[in-house]
Amino acid sequence: MTRPIQATIHGAALRHNLARMRAAAPDAKVWGVVKANAYGHGIERVWEGLRGADGFALLDLQEAERVRSLGWRGPILLLEGVFEPRDLELCSRLNLWHTVHCDEQIAMLAAHKTQQPHRVFLKLNSGMNRLGFAAQRFRAAWTRLDGLPQVDEISLMTHFADADSAKGIAQQVRVFEEATRDLPGERTLSNSAATLRFGGDAAVRGDWIRPGIAVYGSAPDYPQHDIAHWGLQPTMTLAARVIAVQQLAIGDTVGYGSSFTADAPLRIGVVACGYADGYPRHCSTGTPVLVDGVRTRLVGRVSMDMITVDLTPVPQAGFGSLATLWGRAANGAVLAMDEVAKAGGTVAYELMCALAARVPVLVE
Ligand SMILES: Cc1ncc(COP(=O)(O)O)c(C=O)c1O
Questions:
Q1: Which terminus of the chain faces fewer neighbouring Cβ atoms within 10 Å, N or C?
Q2: What is the whole-number distance in angstroms between the Cα of residue 244 and the centre of ligand 1?
Q3: Ligand 1 near 32 CB (within 6 A)
Q4: Distance from the CA of 212 to the center of ligand 1, in angstroms?
Q5: Of the candidates 195, 218, 216, 196, which has an alpha carbon nearest to the alpha carbon of residue 205?
Q6: Cis ω on the peptide bond leading into residue 280 (within 30° of 0)?
Q7: Which residues are catalytic?
Q8: Judging by DSSP bridges, how do beta strands 294-299 and 288-291 pair with one another?
Q9: Whose CA is nearest to atom 5 of ligand 1?
Q10: Cα 311 from chain centroid?
Q11: How far is the CA of 191 from the centre of ligand 1 (A)?
Q12: How far apart are alpha carbons 202 and 59 in whole angstroms?
């Protein structure tokens, strides 16, 4: 018998969120960002939902091969470019576009033997100080690339550090505009947060947007705004059944470390989901959970295979009742992953990427 736990990937919600991002950046093309196995959802599982994107952006060559195996003939962009010379052979063979962010990658390209010149995205470090050429070295890198027979078209790219917060993107946009002024080529700047917050500005949306997290149903600037505010829908539901019920008396404690003590008689349900399924271990008493679609709370510590939940708001619930840890319950109630992530001191990016391999996944 399999454990009564299941994740569901919602194709219609992926389609909806993709359309929402398109609407936020009119006229821009959309990279479906499917790195990290489509943010933990599974590339093959999101395929039907995201195949309406104009291209797919990812990091791993194996993931690029998987996207090609799905029959995708359109653009694929390697967001970190190549890591070693032989990666360029695969780029030639699979027609992958790749980011160029450092001198070593230009040297690899210059030494690469190919009949098929490559489309590259030259990356500017506009202030994040992760990948990219500094502004004062950007034009020299562009000129060097432009002179290579291995290079076909050069596009221009940067990435924002603070698109989701008060600091915003204005300074990085200024640096990008200055460094790329008069250079030909398509531009790509914006992740989810920049697209939702500033996508109305043509300079910010550029020719391609690169939304990831919003497509997967999380508000990039949570808790300032939630998914309802941005018109996004959950794309992953994690649900598990109640496998035992306990009646606590005043003073009884629950679970490891006895971290929760009942101050009134309390019925609790034991749910078949723990940190080995990807539920965050740092969530503590009070973290929201839906039982039979009704909002209640986690009580006590998260253990490897189980959590315990307060059944007070759902007196009819018992053995076999369905707990929704995040996503959408059968009655339509939504518990955004953002809320659970915040209660666990993390972000939805980490939760979705951490869905454990042992959890069976249904695609609908
Ligand atoms: C270069 C690049 N572009 C786009 C994205 C998508 O960002 P988000 O998921 O915040 O929309 C990422 C994700 O980290 C990235 O590294």
A1: N
A2: 41
A3: no
A4: 6
A5: 195
A6: no
A7: 35, 256
A8: antiparallel
A9: 191
A10: 32
A11: 5
A12: 27
Q: Is the pTM of this model over 0.85?
A: yes
Residue nearest ligand 1's atom 8 by CA: 212
What phi, psi does 258 have (nearest 5°)?
45, 45
For residue 260, report the distance from its CA to the centre of ligand 1, in Å. Answer: 38
CB 58 within 8 A of CB 31: no
For CA atoms 228, 233, 236, 239, the dihedral sign is: positive
Whether residue 32 contacts residue 14, with contact meaning beta carbons closer than 8 Å, is answered with no
Query: Ligand 1 in contact with 210 (CB < 6 A)?
Result: yes
Ligand 1 nearest atom to the CA of residue 31, by list position: 4
Q: Is 132 in the pocket of ligand 1 (CB under 6 A)?
A: no
Can you read off the two tokens belonging to residue 179? Answer: 């460094």
Cβ–ligand 1 distance for 33 under 6 Å, the answer yes
Tokens of 275: 């940190």
**Which residue shows structure tokens 């210059």?**
110
Query: pLDDT tens digits, the chain, 364 residues: what are they?
Result: 689 999 999 999 999 999 999 999 999 999 999 999 999 999 999 999 999 999 999 999 999 999 999 999 999 999 999 999 999 999 999 999 999 999 999 999 999 999 899 999 999 999 999 999 999 999 999 999 999 999 999 999 999 999 999 999 999 999 999 999 999 999 999 999 999 999 999 999 999 999 999 999 999 999 999 999 999 999 999 999 999 999 999 999 999 999 999 999 999 999 999 999 999 999 999 999 999 999 999 999 999 999 999 999 999 999 999 999 999 999 999 999 999 999 999 999 999 999 999 999 999 9
The pair phi, psi for residue 57, each rounded to 5°, is: -115, 135
- Indicate which atom in ligand 1 lies nearest the CA of residue 192: 11
Structure tokens at 22: 């398109």
Give the E-state strand segments of the chain in sequence order.
5-9, 29-33, 55-58, 76-78, 97-100, 118-125, 133-134, 151-157, 187-188, 208-209, 236-248, 253-254, 260-261, 266-271, 288-291, 294-299, 307-310, 322-328, 334-335, 361-363
